[in-house]
Amino acid sequence: MVDVNKFSSMQIGLASSDKIRSWSFGEVKKPETINYRTLKPEKDGLFDERIFGPTKDWECACGKYKRIRYKGIVCDRCGVEVTRAKVRRERMGHIELAAPVTHIWYFKGIPSRMGLVLDMSPRALEEIIYFASYVVTDPGDTPLENKQLISEQDYREKKLEYGNRFEAKIGAEAIRTLLNNVDINKEVAELKDELKKATGQKRVRAVRRLDILEAFLQSGNDLSWMVMEAIPVIPPDLRPMVQLEGGRFATSDLNDLYRRVINRNNRLKRLLDLHAPGIIVQNEKRMLQEAVDALIDNGRRGRPVAGPGNRPLKSLSHMLKGKQGRFRQNLLGKRVDYSGRSVIDVGPFLKFNQMGLPVPMAMELFKPFIMKELVKRGSASNIKSAKRQIERKDEEVFDVLDDVIKEHPVLLNRAPTLHRLGIQAFEPVLVSGKSMRLHPLACEAYNADFDGDQMAIHVPLSDEAQAESRLLMLAATHILAPRDGNPIVAPSQDMVIGNYYLTMEEEGREGEGMIFNTPEEAKLSYQSGLTHWHTRVGIATSSMREKPFTDEQKDKILVTTIGKIIFNGILPKTFQYLNEPTDTNLHGHLSDSFFLEPGEDIHEHLKNAPLNGAFKKGFLSDIIAEVYKKYKVTETSQLLDRMKDLGYNESTKSGLTVGITDVTDLKSKPQIIADSHKKVENVTKQFRRGLITDQERYERVIGIWSDAKDEIQNDLLKNFDPQNPIFMMSDSGARGNISNFTQLAGMRGLMAAPNGEIMELPITANFREGLSVLEMFISTHGARKGMTDTALKTANSGYLTRRLVDVAQDVIIREEDCNTDRGVIVAALKQGNEMIEPLYDRIIGRYAMKTVKNPETGEVIVKHNQMINEPEAEAIEAAGIEEVEIRSAFTCNTVHGVCEKCYGRNLATGSPVEVGEAVGTVAAQSIGEPGTQLTMRNFHTGGVAGNADITQGLPRVQEIFEARNPKGKAEITEVTGTVSLIEENPAERVKEVTVKGDADTRTYKVPINARMNVAEGDFVRRGQAINEGSIDPKELIKVRDSLSTEVYLLSEVQKTYRMQGVEVSDKHAEIMVRQMLRKVRIMDSGDTDVLPGTLMDINDFKEANADAVISGKIPATARPVILGITKAALETNSFLSAASFQETTRVLTDAAIRGKNDPLVGLKENVIIGKLIPAGTGMKTYGEINAKVEEQESPKVDSNDVYSISQIEKRMNEEDVNNQ
């Protein structure tokens, strides 16, 4: 076997018949498989041991030679080599064909490769290959033409007329002759001349033919290799035959397909030996051709060959294709041992880096470690007895288990793994029962809950894997989401309500106005029953010396509550004292209004002091972010645990419950509803009199009921008692929102019909009153629609993520600085007056391209190439600067990736990104993961005139990334100039907009009801939209440059996500968009070797031109093109990555003809061949580190202990000998 670490690239090509024979260990001559009586493989058959190797390790077929000591001997009786049985997975055979056959991939694909090479139509080829027509291969001196098709009848007549003066052939032999007659060099020269003159369809065809002929020329593949004289037989263990109970056999479809080929081949040989009539031989040859076609790609031509039950047989091509094919099922996703799965349950007693592992699972997962330890301690004499001890569940085993799992992290994964936080490492803690326990704060990242979710657990075995798990994947270090850099671990539900209830304030609670010296005293007063959490009291700030109070505040009395004193006790010692949920308190200092002036009476102070709010979920999240910024990971994860424990404790003690009396009646409701009914009556009257249209009536009725619902909702909020448990749940952010309560206590409101339109009949009842039968029935539509939408959305979103990952998987941080001289100017993103993304969010964590100065003082805020952190970003906003030029992935010069400076901060850690970070995959996950939160359908804007249905949500994201023609397209102007005229053309239902530029004048047609962005007399720049709607990026890139197109696409992605309340960082979208513009289309080749009309990677194009300029030749010209992500993923330089993505056969056909070389730079290709991925610790720089272990008992690790596969095999063989 080949050692994967010995090669750095992988090439694919066409195999000649000689090559196929050289791979083979023998010819398969008979269609037999195994003897059904003896169950031994038949001689010369598809499972023959002489060809493919022995079925048992170190044993020949007849049993003369057994044991490893005869290794390598070929038995003189049965002819089988004594070796391992696994050679049956790698040894190939072959079938010598009695007549040549064409390879269906090259004949049938689109475009037909053979057709292009021979300049014939696929239809003509089909007639020749399947023996319907003859083709003239050599016209001699007859009036026939080369490659002319003649029917059987014609052929006979011409033979009588001309005798042997011409040559015509039929079948694959004819194709082989034609291919051998092609002079590639001559054809290429002729095509290059033709290209200079040809236009239109002719030019397209010439470019295609030139492309394919150049490919054959460059790759060294011979044209005639597309016709096969021998076909390979794949190893038998890859097409197994297994006995079922009841004596029947199950076999791989390939065996049936091979049997058909062998049967027909043998029959053809016999017919040829018998000199059978030509028509019979031809028929048999055609059947052989069809059998080989079915073997290679069943169903590609004609009806697929079916097996029992009319099921089409799976051919070689099907083995590779699709989700169940070799690429996706076995190479990109493998099953692993040392793994398990179980239901998860909540583990509130755990620390943030722990998980609860049930003892039976731990025993099984850590079995080899336990056995080793038992032998080491002398409890068991050998491995076998250690195993028995574990099965007996001896007392000692449990002691060992405790020690074994210490310091040994495990990985937990919950499907679907939408982003990298779907797999995290924890330290196991043994628990009773059978369910795994998960820390409640880890739920958010996994999107897990405890209603029956299951999770998988994996044990990292090697020291390296354990080290990576501990250093890179420990859950306690994953506090920020890679998507936007905000904390992903935030208290939820009970934890929130506990901390909220703890920090509430109430007037007149017991013990109000007491003053304490220390926090301990205050807590004691609560425990003694003198005060309550909500009691407002005073405390001497001198007792909290580490807190950053101002000098004036240091010796005063701080007015706060008992609960807030307790809450501040869990924060880091030097963190500011939090007394109110405001940003100023969080980032700055406490307001002086909370302190008593010397000699001031606390009771007087409290009479005038307003009540401060309790700490809600959002504020708790802000606290975590602030603590993370100041104190980094360890302190933050400890704070999270303290916050969790405090929340659970206090929410239990608070005794919050919900009863029907908490759902208060609204006094004003009947009046509001009665008023609305009257308004609806008036509108109906107006409609009856013909004053308004039916559409207007419908819109007004909907408006009336929406207003009524809003009014009821506002009244409800006013009437809620702050101590109402339902209100507290919603207000704190623990569970539910205001619309839930409107439905409980107000009215349910309007519902959507199954077709998506809103029904005019509102549900005026609420859940407390109960719904009538009709109301209940109306509301079921919405429930069903919700369920179906969610199911559709999940599938669509998952597929989008897969395409995104595939297009960006090779984008890795490759270097520190690419030294680019271009940047991108960013400003706040707005739509109309609505702020979509403020400047602060767009520049934070990025490097400035140019020095930024305060426009008034001239003081430097950020230097060139300096990272913009929070203080600088705040200073820029405060100075009123509206746009900043930053480094961006769009302008990065790094090949196959991005540099550190153009990427900026790693959002998941808050520090600058490191070389080796797989930012492409992270970007794809960050954009794909929130996909399920986006709405599924296009919004119908209730027929408001002029505003076409705009696509939003998930369909819009797909539209952008696939570079499709957008719905509701905006026309753009191709010239810079003035709008001279806008006139309506009712006949064509369009408005005609004329733009007068310096050089020429253009007229554009927009729909008559479109909303205009321009008016007569306006100055417009090229690429500007004339009417409202989405610009087609393919048009924009023609009119403007690629950077403008990239910036436009980025802003569209951000609009779509932010409108739905999802925050995704710019840099993720930048990486995806950059991948869509990696290619250029060659317009003119100059003196270079590039072919006009072909797509080329932008870096390869620059390289080719640089070489030309150095040699003093004319460089090629090209224009940038935009590809959708699916197309971009298939156009990648790696054929392994493309083949494992989509259209496997097409990608491989093309790669083979071109003799493509896969440089293995991306992640996917390395996973496929089984190398470490070239990102993170898999990069070369890390591979050269040798570990030195200091402990005495464990052996030192040096490079000689890193075994290659062959060394491990050798050791195993030696062990086998010793055991025998």
Automatic annotation (TrEMBL):
Gene3D superfamilies in the record: 1.10.132.30, 1.10.150.390, 1.10.1790.20, 1.10.40.90, 2.40.40.20, 2.40.50.100, RNA polymerase II, clamp domain, RNA polymerase Rpb1, domain 3
GO biological process, one term: DNA-templated transcription
Annotated Mg(2+) binding sites: 449, 451, 453
GO cellular component: a single term: DNA-directed RNA polymerase complex
E.C. designation(s): 2.7.7.6
Cofactor requirements of the protein: Zn(2+); Mg(2+)
SMART domains attached to this UniProt entry: RPOLA_N (SM00663)
Catalytic reaction equation(s): RNA(n) + a ribonucleoside 5'-triphosphate = RNA(n+1) + diphosphate
Gene Ontology MF: a single term: DNA binding
Keyword terms of this UniProt record: DNA-directed RNA polymerase, Magnesium, Metal-binding, Nucleotidyltransferase, Transcription, Transferase, Zinc
Superkingdom of the organism of origin: Bacteria
Enzyme class: transferase
Residue ranges of domain RNA polymerase N-terminal in the record: 224-503
InterPro entries linked: DNA-dir_RpoC_beta_prime (IPR045867), DNA-dir_RpoC_beta_prime_bact (IPR012754), RNA_pol_asu (IPR000722), RNA_pol_N (IPR006592), RNA_pol_Rpb1_1 (IPR007080), RNA_pol_Rpb1_3 (IPR007066), RNA_pol_Rpb1_3_sf (IPR042102), RNA_pol_Rpb1_4 (IPR007083)
Assembly and binders: The RNAP catalytic core consists of 2 alpha, 1 beta, 1 beta' and 1 omega subunit. When a sigma factor is associated with the core the holoenzyme is formed, which can initiate transcription.
The family this protein is said to belong to: Belongs to the RNA polymerase beta' chain family.
HAMAP family per UniProt: RNApol_bact_RpoC (MF_01322)
Name of the featured protein: DNA-directed RNA polymerase subunit beta'
Upper classification of the organism: Bacteria, Bacillati, Bacillota, Bacilli, Lactobacillales
